[in-house]
Amino acid sequence: MFTGIIEAVGTVKSIEKKGASGRIKVDAGLDLTGVSIGDSIAVSGACLTVVGVTKTGFDADVSEETLRTTTLGALSLGSPVNIERALTLSKPLGGHLVSGHVDGTGVIVSAVRKDAYVDIEVGCPVELMAQLVKKGSVAVDGISLTVAYMQTGGFSVAVIPHTVANTTLKALTPGLRVNIETDIIGKYVLRFLAKGQKGGITEGFLAEHGFLKG
Predict the structure, then answer these.
(1) Which is it for the CA torsion 72, 154, 7, 3, positive or negative?
(2) What is the residue-level pLDDT of the chain in tens, covering all 214 positions?
(3) 104-191: CATH, from 2.40.30.20, 3.40.50.2000, 3.40.50.1000, 1.10.10.10
(4) Does domain 8-85 have CATH number 2.40.30.20?
(5) CB-based contacts of 143: which residues, under 8 Å, 6+ apart?
């Protein structure tokens, strides 16, 4: 589990394809003292398991599913990536609960600078749009952001100067793909409602699921 508060912008040192899967080596750009093999680190929003670690870098295996559903399969030597170590109970939850399980990818439609701020419009698949709400949370390349507007086929976020300066957002241009993870709470609500659609949400349905007491 993560917070969506990026700790550093790392650099891809190598990415090796092994059939349908692969292995990535990353210079994390921060001190990894305390990180052990088996720990989780989010790379641009995708949760990976550390299989090798040095003071400032780590290796991670990347599954076929991750390569297929995220932007990690398109990374190359020197690509910048957002890095966040896993949330601990002593770490402030400054963003929102991010699982690191990317739901899909979107495309940067526009990135308009307004002084030091940037308004970013992201084209998003319709199935993910159903899990977003205005003023709700969304993770874009692992960054915890607030949905400012929703429009047909996408959403917009207003990014503060600190986030622009300390994440990969500063280099985003129209046409680039980004990883998207919707709010986990929204997913559960959507699934709950979908299960009740067959007969509608009735008094009996609410009683069956513990919302009403006799």
Answers:
(1) negative
(2) 999 999 999 999 999 988 889 999 999 999 999 999 999 999 999 999 999 999 999 999 999 999 999 999 999 999 999 999 999 888 888 899 999 999 999 999 999 998 889 999 999 999 999 899 999 999 999 999 999 999 999 999 999 999 999 999 988 899 999 999 999 888 887 777 776 655 566 667 777 777 666 5
(3) 2.40.30.20
(4) yes
(5) 4, 6, 45, 82, 163, 167, 169
